[in-house]
Amino acid sequence: METIKKLSTAIFRKKILAMTAYQVAEADGFIKLDAMENPYGWPNDLTDEWLNTLRNCEINRYPDPDARQLNNKLRAMNQIPTELGVLLGNGSDEIIQLLLMALTPNATVMAPDPSFVMYQQISDGLDLNFHAIPLQANNFALDLPRFLKAIDEIKPKIIFLAYPNNPTGNLFNASEIREILNHASGLVIVDEAYAPFTDSTFMTEIIDFNNLLVMRTVSKLGLAGLRLGYLVGQNEIINQLNKIRLPYNINVLTQISTLFALSNYAIFEQQTQLIRQERTTLTQELKKISHLEVFPSEANFILFRVLNHSASGLFTFLKEQQVLVKSLANNKGPLTNCLRVTVGKAEENQAFLTALSHYFIVHDQAN
Questions:
Q1: Which helix (H) or strand (E) holds 8?
Q2: Are residues 192 and 110 in the same domain?
Q3: Under a CB-based contact definition with an 8 Å cutoff, are residues 214 and 190 in contact?
Q4: Rounded to whole angstroms, what are the CA distances from 339 to 137, 225, 326, 334?
Q5: Which pLDDT score is estimated for 365?
């Protein structure tokens, strides 16, 4: 064992050895409210129609390396003009990796803190210099003067801005993002993973900024298992990234299934509206609980801070009740003692609220 450890130490970079692998919680048997997934399935007749489309799938052949039909469908749905390019990835994670792989050695990458963990995870894995700029502690808004000062000092090649932000759920001020776009000499990636749950977007502004790229995914829409993300930006930028994109990165099942799903988009619009309605209801119910500080959300999840109680203790209690949420309780800074809950079906949200209320009743009586 010691010999193997010496071998890995000798081969792998120190930053890799110091990293921790991304952990996904075991969820079998739980009400799963931890991963920002669409909780709704498809009607049986639509499922049957989808399965029929797969009958002619030639899995013995390589897929279209450019996924042209799917690319064209995404262009049409998002009204993307021909002067802009579209890059498809095996989920947004691959697109983030491609962007960072293309940078010069020791390049600097910047993002707000807190934000999507994969920006730093992939940066660290590629031995890049990642800088996290703290958000305002009281409302998770951008600290614009601090952000612009950091741009001047560290000159990042790439800035990531999740819009809405994960794990906080809020939208950054759009005019401040435009200031960042005008101030930055590098690329600014506006990550719109949660676009189905908000009416705000920078997709229509790409044409106005040479350094703006917008990244989206079909995961939050309800197709998380298919692993498809896409990036929209100036053709010159997309063409350069395509040089390092692995051939056949979008498998044939994903291409056919996503194209079918997007051709039946009405079902996802209905589900999205249900999730938005449930978000409003769940937020209102959480705000009635005096032990919680609830943050506004434009995504399909809600962040809340536990007051005068242990968020870790609450997380464990919910898990014992077979309700799984995301614990951010051990994070330092503004996420201290916070949990994040995905908006589920009405009955799932009610089970969560019932367990939550029971926890505080029991602990208040004990005190």
A1: helix 2-11
A2: yes
A3: yes
A4: 16, 24, 6, 12
A5: 65
Q: Is 119 helix (H, G, I), strand (E, B) or coil?
A: helix
Query: Which residues, 6 or more positions from 30, have their beta carbon under 8 angstroms from its beta carbon?
Result: 319, 322, 323, 324
Which has the closest alpha carbon to 21: 168, 94, 122, 112? 122
Q: Which CA distances in Å does 67 have to 54, 72, 250?
A: 16, 9, 7
For the record, the structure tokens of 356 come out as 């939550």
Report d(CA 71, CA 48) in Å as an integer: 25
Within-domain flag for 276: yes
The sheet that has 338-342: what strands, in order across it? 292-294, 301-306, 338-342, 326-327
Whether residue 6 lies inside any domain: the answer is: no
The answer to whether residues 236 and 301 belong to one domain is no
Tell me if 126 sits within 8 A of 158, measured CB to CB: no
Its pTM stands at 0.95
The one-letter amino acid at 8: S
Q: What is d(CA 111, CA 163) in angstroms, rounded to the nearest whole number? A: 12
Residue 1: what pLDDT? 64
Its domain, for residue 111, covers 59-263
Q: How far apart are CA 69 and CA 72, in angstroms?
A: 5
Counting Cα atoms < 13 Å in the Cβ hemisphere of 203 gives 22
Write the CATH number for 357. 3.90.1150.10
Total domains in the chain come to 2
**Pairing verdict, β 323-324 and 212-217:** unpaired
Same domain assignment for residues 221 and 275: no
State the Cα–Cα distance between residues 55 and 36, nearest whole angstrom: 31
The answer on 133 and 182 residing in a single domain is: yes
Q: What is the pLDDT of residues 34-93, one digit of tens each?
A: 999 999 999 999 999 999 999 989 999 999 999 999 999 999 999 999 999 999 999 999
Asked whether residue 308 falls in the same domain as residue 355, the answer is yes
b/e 33-54 (16+ beta carbons within 10 angstroms → b):
bbebbbbbebeeeeeeeeeeee
Let me know if residue 305 belongs to a domain: yes
For residues 206 and 354, state if they share a domain.
no
Tell whether 333 is covered by a domain: yes
